[in-house]
Amino acid sequence: MISPGGVPGQTMWRAPRLTHAVDAAISVPGSKSLTNRYLVLAALADGPCVLRRPLHSRDSALMIAALRSLGAVIDEVPGDGDFGPDLRVTPLPTGAREPAARTVDCGLAGTVMRFVPALAGLVTGTTAFDGDPHARRRPMGAIIDALRGLGISIDDGGAGSLPFTIEGRGGVRGGRLVVDASASSQFVSALLLVGARFDEGLHLEHVGKPVPSLDHVRMTVETLRSLGVAVDDSVPDHWHVSPGPIAAFDVAIEPDLSNAGPFLAAAVVTGGTIRIRNWPSGTTQVGDEWRRILPLMGATATLDGGTLTVTGGRSISGGVFADTSELAPTVAALCALATTPSTLTGIAHLRGHETDRLAALAAEITALGGRVQETADGLVIEPAPLHGGVFHTYEDHRMATAGAILGLAVEGVQVENIGTTAKTMPEFPELWAAVASTATASTTIESGARS
Ligand SMILES: O=C(O)C1=C[C@@H](OP(=O)(O)O)[C@@H](O)[C@H](O)C1
Ligand SMILES: C=C(OP(=O)(O)O)C(=O)O
């Protein structure tokens, strides 16, 4: 298992440059969003649970460590996944317990810093939360205000961000709560995940600019319903979670479709073919949007028999791409290699992600010769010939994979700290090398349009 504490090393990684088309069938590790939701729900469930083929990465290791420190028992058990063991979870103990003092390291994981604090209100004792240096700059105000609104004692020194300490009393009354979740959908998900365990359940209302990344809220609602929790989301910006048990479960975690994106992009960039195994026929993951997005760029995408096959076209078309959420860095890298201009909209909240992704993408693509402008809620990217150079990654896994995509088409791209991909996919460098090795003289790139 990945160590939850380690910040990956700062090394330069020479991105493979391909002059032939890739042709590969791969599996990708489990979904971060599903793994960390099911871990939280297992800790709150009414009996022991099993997660099959879960993600093993820094973010999941941090979640496991956090839930263990709150009292859940999480064991690795043999499974049939390609990327590590299954997980068996014995939930947090219920009823009166001796108060304890614990710490939770959130690293840079949004799911840990947003989802776990409410659980700390359900157990007895003090839990101190902190994370990586940049974690202290990620938006947390709505969670801190929400916990106070629920009567949970929290000391953040008035900063409205990490670090903070929560004094749990072993239970939360719940009821009506108003939040402004415009900075992150994870504020809504965090409260819905735990709402059924409040004495009176939860009636959550969002006020403010629209909630971003709504697919992730739908994932939360569908996951809760699948475990017998009644959630009424029939009125926009209102969610009612009825109090009651969360049914124990044994689930197989879907592959991470967002992390499949860079590999699918390799097909698009090289005019080759990538097949992703075990693509779900129905899913709440935003990564299923690749089947809609990549054809807009000139690729073909076919889902057949559980395999998604993407084949790149003769060149990459730009376009208007709205609300791409965590897919945006991959979309932006493809747009920087496109022959026509692109506009990405609806992603202002990416400024609060692992880094300010709009600023980082604009700076790093521009440094390679690209033409990128930040807008109020996204990016405008125009065609320009790119050249080699260092692609800085700001501890952001999706910046690292964006650099790798650009390096496929541009000679001499060096990605700083490729190890940061361990946040959600420690296997990235090896899988990328394996895919790159399939580009041989027999798989000629047809188009001369690529840089
Ligand atoms: O709930 C989740 O699992 C996530 C929600 C989204 O967060 P934001 O709403 O902050 O974008 C997404 O970007 C993140 O990668 C994962
Ligand atoms: C925004 C992301 O992560 P987090 O869960 O840390 O918010 C992401 O993975 O793109």
Mean pLDDT level: 95
Low-confidence stretches: 1-9, 446-451
Would you tell me the structural class of the helices and strands?
Answer: alpha/beta
The amount of beta strand, in percent, is 15-25%
Number of strands: 23
| Fraction of helical residues | 25-40%
EC number: 2.5.1.19
Binding site for 3-phosphoshikimate: 32-33, 37, 184-186, 213, 326, 353
Catalytic activity: 3-phosphoshikimate + phosphoenolpyruvate = 5-O-(1-carboxyvinyl)-3-phosphoshikimate + phosphate
Protein name: 3-phosphoshikimate 1-carboxyvinyltransferase
Record the SSE blueprint:
Elements: E1 12-14, E2 23-26, H1 32-44, E3 49-52, H2 58-70, E4 73-77, E5 86-90, E6 100-105, H3 110-122, E7 124-130, H4 141-149, E8 153-155, E9 164-169, E10 175-179, H5 186-195, E11 202-206, H6 214-226, E12 231-232, E13 238-241, E14 250-252, H7 257-270, E15 273-276, H8 290-296, E16 300-304, E17 307-311, E18 320-322, H9 328-336, E19 342-345, H10 357-367, E20 371-375, E21 378-382, E22 389-391, H11 397-409, E23 413-416, H12 428-436
Parallel strand pairs: 2-15, 3-14, 6-7, 10-11, 18-19, 22-23
Antiparallel strand pairs: 1-23, 3-5, 4-5, 7-9, 8-9, 11-13, 12-13, 15-17, 16-17, 19-21, 20-21
The protein binds shikimate-3-phosphate and phosphoenolpyruvate.
Residues 109-111, 326, 353-354, 398, 424 line the site of phosphoenolpyruvate.
